[in-house]
Amino acid sequence: MTSSALLEIRNLEVQFGTEDGVVRAVDGVTYTIEREKTLGVVGESGCGKTVTALAIMGLVQSPPGKIANGEILYHRGEKTTDLAKLPPKGRAMRAIRGNEIAMIFQEPMTSLNPVFTIGYQIMEAIILHQRLKKKDARTQAIRMLHEVGIPMPEQRVDEYPHQLSGGMRQRAMIAMALSCNPQLLIADEPTTALDVTIQAQVLELMNALRKEFKAAIQFITHDLGVIAGMADDVAVMYLGRIVEAATVREIFHAPQHPYTQGLMHSIPSLRRQKERLVPIEGVVPDPSDAPPGCGFEPRCPKRMEICKTKMPPLEEVAAGHTAACWLYGGKR
Amino acid sequence: MAQSDTVLLDVKGLVKHFPVRKGAFRRVKAAVRAVDGIDLFIREGETLGLVGESGCGKTTAGRSILRLVEPTKGEIIFRSRRMAGTAGGVKEVDVVKASRGEMKALRRDMQIIFQDPYSSLNPRMTVGGIVGEPLLVHAMARGEERKKRVADVLGAVGLKPEHMKRYPHEFSGGQRQRIGIARALVLDPQLVVCDEPVSALDVSIQAQVLNLLEDLQREFGLTYLFVAHNLSVVKHISNRVAVMYLGRIVELASTERLFADPKHPYTEALVSAVPVPDPDYSVDRIILQGDVPSPVSPPPGCHFHPRCRYAVDVCSKDAPVYRDLGNEHFVACHRADDLHLQPIHDRTTGQTGGPAA
């Protein structure tokens, strides 16, 4: 397993100091991203899925945030680097960020700089990491724009972000992220801001490019439909923790954690006959006021006495399928 | 309340153009044709879903029907209970032609729930003030009576009377949306336009609000125009569904019929693009090429023809007539009779759908 692992996150804790005390946004997260595979990370707003990604990229704002504990082991060849220990602004991290590990953000309008052409922004990364001449970098940028299906890339390369539609901007972001041929692409809700027909275009493109570039993808989303179509493995997050992790088929056909089960029942599906939805009662607690035991306990239909006081460990419930729930734990 | 055969709202040829002004004299140079002639009707007690992608004009259509934006042209016939003046009576009113006074009276019968529960509630007002304000504006209840009415409606949407003294920021997104729903319902309206009421909410909260909307419809005999971009949500809640593209309705049919037997190529593509939460679901996905054209200069003929894989010569010349194919299945497509489009059911792999319980 370690031989194919690209990135191993172990017991990662990210905390933010606020006026109301320390918020544990990521509270002991462990997962592995395999080479050339897509890991889907699902969760609702505030569950810590984006902060985990920012921690990998060394982009957690400090202060108020800091990586309080844990390791982010990045394997390349024989070498293993702990990204959590690297200074975020140091030379080593900068050589990795945007080069070997790249990220696509949710809102392509705010994450592209409006005063530079998209070509300039793509070339910036290429010149920095690949030490190409400006002219060659431009050729490379045009090639990347062509690769992501932007029509007339020779002209588009000189356009500004506002001249592109939302779908085209997201394609430009993908071109930028892939321009240095990364090992790992972190996509944070890359299609949430897009219309459904444009989303279909972008998802198809990402799947095709993943095969072509042999990159691994960490795909962060709240949309279970998108996860089902994109991911090989899925990790479900709730209140800063992984509550369940398995292959995509296991997660959808045999979800074990009550939260995962609740999510599955609360979404209407085009394929299902109309039936009453079964929502998860209550709301996500504020992370600064998290329950002492299992974070899902106040909303869980299957809660027990132990859930109130003790945090359930993430344990194997079937081969390659882990869940953090006292329904299955406590045997050892 | 069960659906009846009575048509509550009948919209004919509704047009809303926004002028585009340019130059030093701010002359009108063009128009954004947000709603470009739509026909639809809603029966009492039913939910009509209005779907489409961003910029298709669905929100403008919803707001024009309430005259929150002034329609450019068209007729909106509404069977108002309160305008009749007598108990049990109804009066058909053309909303577009209604005077200021008539419009104010009509607003008691037609209400709206907004998308964003953060910006649609005044942060300086208490929940009691927000929900009770319509009662003041329409002079329907005062003092203790008003308080009681607000408490009742808060109870109906799953909030507590003691929440009246609190401010919006003290509530979560889902609870805020409940406050917005309470404000819409406090006047006991007949028609509620729901403008993307769940799209700002997390999935687990979405289901709570959708169930609430269904319960309230049954309890108070409400009629909904449900405007949304999420096809799964619209399919779940609607009796009939209208699909909009670039200011026009391209197809309108009962929910079962629309998904089992789509007649417009855009509907087919839209349905196939929706991600389905089942990893074994193999889709023959129709990927539409290009983007939605600008509503300032929509393509001639059928607005959809540049992206349509079935387009023929006539599609770029003449706008297709919006017609009834029978059984109230309305479609605007030249080739509706000879195309056999993919329904949603045919794409299943034969395995039982949905997650294991």
Rounded radius of gyration of chain B (Å): 21 Å
Per CATH, the architecture of the domain at 1-109 and 222-357 in chain B is 3-Layer(aba) Sandwich
How large is the share of residues in beta strands of chain B? 15-25%
Radius of gyration of chain A: 21 Å
Question: How many runs of DSSP E, i.e. beta strands of chain B?
Answer: 12
**Helices and strands of chain A, in N-to-C order?**
EEEHEEHEHHHHHEHEHEEHHHEE
Number of H- or I-type helical stretches of chain A:
12
Structural class of chain B: alpha/beta
The rough form of chain B would be described as globular
How many β strands of chain A by DSSP?
A: 12
Q: Could you give a short account of the major beta sheet of chain A? A: 8 strands, mixed
Counting H and I runs of at least 4 residues, what is the number of helices of chain B? 10
Low-confidence segments of chain A: none
Average pLDDT confidence of chain A is: 90
Strand content of chain A: 25-35%
Tell me what you see in this structure.
The complex is a heterodimer of chains A (332) and B (357). By secondary structure, chain A is of the alpha/beta class. Helices cover 33% and strands 25% of the residues of chain A. In chain A, helix 4 (118-130) packs across helix 5 (134-147), helix 4 (118-130) runs parallel beside helix 7 (166-178) and helix 5 packs across helix 7 (166-178). Chain B has 357 residues and is of the alpha/beta class. Chain B has a domain at 1-109 and 222-357: Rossmann fold, CATH 3.40.50.300. Chain B has an 8-stranded mixed β-sheet, with helices on both faces. A 4-stranded antiparallel β-sheet of chain B has the order 2-1-4-5. In chain B, a hairpin with a 5-residue loop joins strand 11 (323-324) and strand 12. In chain B, helix 3 runs parallel beside helix 5 (173-185). The model of chain B is unreliable at 346-357 (pLDDT under 50).
